[in-house]
Amino acid sequence: MFRKNRILVLLLLSLPLQGQDVDHEEPKVRQPLPSAREIGELPRDGGEEFNRLVFEASPYLRQHARNPVDWYPWCDEAFDLALKLDKPIFLSIGYSTCHWCHVMEHESFEDEDVAALMNEHFVCIKVDREERPDVDHVYMSFAQAFGRGGWPMTVLMAPDQKPFHAGTYYPKTGRGGRPGMMEMLPQVAKQWEDDRANLLTQSNRLVEWVKSQNKPSTGRALGKGILDMAQKGLMSGFDPRMGGFSQAPKFPVPHNLRLLLREHAANGTAQSLQMVELTLDQMRKGGIWDHVGFGFHRYSTDAKWLVPHFEKMLYDQALLAMAYTEAWQVTGKAEYAETVEQIFTYVLRDMTAHAGGFYSAEDADSEGEEGLFYFWTEKELRSLLAEEDADLFIDTYNVRRRGNFRDGASGGKSANNILHLNSTLAEIAARHGAEGPVILARLERIREKLFAAREKRIHPLKDDKILTDWNGLMIAALAQAGRAMDRPDWVQAADRAAEYAWNALRDPKTGRLYKRSRGGKAGLQGMLEDYAFMAWGMIELHQATQDPRRLAAAEQLCNTAIKYFWDKDHGGFFLYPSDGEELIVRAKEVYDGALPSGNSVMLWNLARMGRLTGRVSYEEHAERAMRAFSNEIRGNARAHTQFLVGVDFFQGPTYEVVISGDPMDPETKAMLKALSTGFRPRLVVLQRPPGEPAIVRLSPFTLGQVAVGGKPTAYVCQDFACLAPVHGVQALLMALAAKIE
Question: Which domain holds residue 714?
Answer without folding.
Answer: 655-737
